[in-house]
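Hi, here's the filled form for the chain we discussed.

Project: internal
Contact: R.S.
Residues: 147
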Amino acid sequence: MPVLELTTLIPNRTPEQVLDFCLEGGNFPKIFPERFTPLGDIDLTNLRIEAGRQFRFRHWMFNFIPSNWTVVIREVGEHHFIDEMLKGPMAAFRHEHRVAAGEGGTLYTDRVTYAAMEGAPLEWLVVNAYMQRIFEARHRNMLRLLG
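And the returned structure, exactly as it came back:
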């Protein structure tokens, strides 16, 4: 399975501040670069990420292709949390969010392990570049909001 890992230094922020920002559900739409719609009774303005919570949302890939996701928060720790797709457009999707002290700020890392339903050919043609673009945009947005 492909693995995408990106790390960004967020200056003048502690790991606790960065992780706290990520654990507030209302910040998800601020960093996600494409349109999405919560499904069910999710109130993003009053949502805290916690282990065991499940969420459903519609992600508009390329801002116009609807794709429904069900994700679960597998783990929340002092310096990380992990979410995993239970149902959605991928054969597998596991997303680790990690923070660590860095020189002058916090190192924020996204590590995503994924697999396309159609396998490696689709990953090579579309999915790998799409994932790279989405997560680079997330990191730019994190820097804009926290930097």
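Let me know if anything looks off before we file it.
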